[in-house]
Amino acid sequence: MSPRRAALLDRLRQSDRRSPAPPAGALAAVCADPRLIGDLVSALDDDDAVVRRRAAEIIEKTTRNHTEWLEPHRASLLPRATARSHRQDTLCRLIPVIPRLEPAHNELRNVTADLFDLIDGPGRQVQVCALQALYDLSAGRPRLRRRVREALERKLREGSPAVQARARRLLAEASPRGQRPRN
């Protein structure tokens, strides 16, 4: 294990478990050496749930502006991003990464199937993240957009208040001007 990787994993392990923020210096370390993204992807399988959550958090934050850093890890990251073995807080950090990976046609089928499962799974936050990811993935894909619209309309009727709010916002965004989503 490289010294930088060891230092990064130590930061993840020693961070304040109650803090919502990533450990000090971890984001800067990854920005200085994007190869550490691979170490963070590996850390998604760590035994410690806090390490997994922090790794997912840093992957999500650092790749908002640097989606190209994800490409070398696409094959291992896509299946992990929807793995039900992750805790909800970890899933909520990984799901937004999926559209950034721009899944190819053969990958898209599996990813969207997993996301459609997650919109009916446990956890309102995971459902909201999955709805958003499906909506983002459906841009420029009319067949997928129709399926996503149907799911959004269903969630508008039967989802929790948080899920309904996201469904309403996404339907409004997708609707032509002047039309309001049906309640």
> What percentage of amino acids are in beta strands?
under 5%
Structural class: mainly alpha
- Reading the helices and strands in chain order gives HHHHHHHHHHH
- Total domains, how many? 2
Describe the protein's topology.
Layout: H1 3-14, H2 26-32, H3 36-43, H4 49-62, H5 74-81, H6 88-94, H7 97-101, H8 105-118, H9 124-137, H10 142-158, H11 161-174
Helix pairs in contact: 1-3, 3-4, 4-6, 6-9, 8-9, 9-10, 9-11, 10-11
What does this structure look like?
- It is a single chain.
- The chain is built from eleven helices and no strands.
- The longest helix has 17 residues, at 142-158.
- It has two domains: 1-74, Leucine-rich Repeat Variant (Alpha Horseshoe); 103-183, no CATH class.
- The N and C termini lie far apart (54 Å).
- It is mostly helical and 183 residues long.
- Helix 1 (3-14) crosses helix 3 (36-43) and helix 3 (36-43) runs antiparallel to helix 4.
- The protein is globular.
Provide key terms for this protein.
183 residues; mainly alpha; Leucine-rich Repeat Variant; 2 domains; 66% helix
In short:
With 183 residues, the protein is mainly α.
